[in-house]
C-alpha cells in the first residue's frame, strides 16, 4: 500500500481521539510512535488500541499491520524526530497548542506535516506556535471514532503551503479516509458547525418543552439521520424532489423553509438548561450499559460502512 512516503506516524496526545488515530494508522500497516505526558498514558493507549483491534480486523488489515508496531515515549520531541507525518491531539487550548507546537516545530524534520485534530481552533492560530515552519501546519480534524469514521477536514491556515495541504490530503486518502479541503478557516470547520446548528434547535426545543431529549434523539436516529448516513443533505434534498430534483424542492419548499429559519430558537446554555439536558440523557440511558451501547454503535457503523462500500456509496 502506498502512503505517499509515510512509513512512521507520530501521534501526539493519546486520549480518546489520539488512541483511535493510533489504532487506525497501525491497521494500515504503519509504524506509530505515540506520546503523552499523562501518568499511565501508555497503558491506557495500549488497552484502547487492543479494544479497537477486533473491529479493525473485521474491516480488513493492511499487509504487515500489527499492534507490535506501536512505540511509546513521554518525550514529544523524541516521538516526532523520525516521523513522516505528525497527528496532534492535545487539549483544545491555544496556550497548550502553542507550547506543544513549539516543540514539534523544532523536533520534526522541516518537510513533515504537522496536522492537528483540533475540532474548532483555527490553523493560523495554532501555527503561531511554529515560528520556524508555520507553512507545514494544517488542521486534520477527524470525526470520532477516527478508526471508523472516514471524514477528515483538512484546513490550511494563512501561512500553510499548498504542498503541505496536498501531502495531508494524499496521506489521509491513502489510509482510507475521505478528506475534504476547506477553502476558508472558520471556528468549528464545517461538520461541527453543521452539528452546532442542529444542536441549537434541539436544545431550544427541549428548553421550550416541545419535545424531550429522548424524543429528539428518536426524531433524528429514526428519521433523517438514517438518510444522512447514506447521502449528504444536498443529495437527499435533491432525491426528495422527484423528477424536478432540488430545483423543485427549492421552488416549492424554499419559502416555508425560510419561515422556519426565522422561527428557530436561539439558546444560552444556562445552568438550568444544562441540568435539563443532562437529566434528559440520564433518563434516556436508564438501565443501559454505556460500554455495551458504544460497542453496538460501532458494530452498526462497521456494518454500515461495509454496506455503503458494497453499494458504491463510499
TrEMBL record:
SUPFAM superfamilies, sorted: 6-phosphogluconate dehydrogenase C-terminal domain-like, NAD(P)-binding Rossmann-fold domains
GO biological process: fatty acid metabolic process
One Pfam family here: 3HCDH
Molecular function in Gene Ontology: NAD+ binding; oxidoreductase activity, acting on the CH-OH group of donors, NAD or NADP as acceptor
Record key words, sorted: Oxidoreductase
KW Transcription (keyword) present: no
InterPro entries: 3-OHacyl-CoA_DH_NAD-bd (IPR006176), 3HC_DH_C (IPR006108), 6-PGluconate_DH-like_C_sf (IPR008927), 6PGD_dom2 (IPR013328), NAD(P)-bd_dom_sf (IPR036291)
Domain called 3-hydroxyacyl-CoA dehydrogenase C-terminal: residue spans: 188-256
Limits of the 3-hydroxyacyl-CoA dehydrogenase NAD binding domain: 9-183
Entry superkingdom: Bacteria
Known pathway: Lipid metabolism; butanoate metabolism
Keyword Oxidoreductase in annotation: yes
Family stated for the protein in its record: Belongs to the 3-hydroxyacyl-CoA dehydrogenase family.
Protein name per Swiss-Prot or TrEMBL: 3-hydroxyacyl-CoA dehydrogenase
